Fold this protein.
Amino acid sequence: MSQIQFSELDGMDEDAMGGKYLTFSLGENDLYGMEIRYITEIISIPSVTQVPEMPEYIKGITNLRGQVIPVMDARLRFGKTEKPYDERTCIIVVDTGAFSIGLVVDSVDEVLSIQEEDVAALPDLGKGGHGYMKSIGKAGGKITLLLDAQKLLSDDELTQVNTVL
């Protein structure tokens, strides 16, 4: 897979990026989305250095053009079974301003526009959750779980990862 950069988004203002989500798959039918304003690029799986005493879903760290970033396997973070990486597996590089992270996903789908009226709150299932699930988007006959990029790591997890960076 070649590298895809989102540098053309640099000149766009918040209003122009509103309602646009990069969607990706984890498994056959599970579709997730994240606001494109947090996505800097999509890369193939690079060399990842494992770091001891990290949570299982933190696969390690990688050097991305001089910047060392943690790499998180989204399947493991979201409680799914581990799966061997293949030619469609890639890393979505996310930059929240507070931290950068590489998110390993099964495959990238598309940039999707989801209108505000097509976004619904998550149902209350009685579980505390981690807070990284933000809402549900409905577009093109598909349900997309929308993530909060700023909550991919809790404060404690961020502190733990930052100790090695």
In short: Residues 155-162 form the longest helix (8 residues). The chain has a mean pLDDT of 86. Helices lie at 14-17, 74-77, 155-162. The longest strand covers residues 58-64.
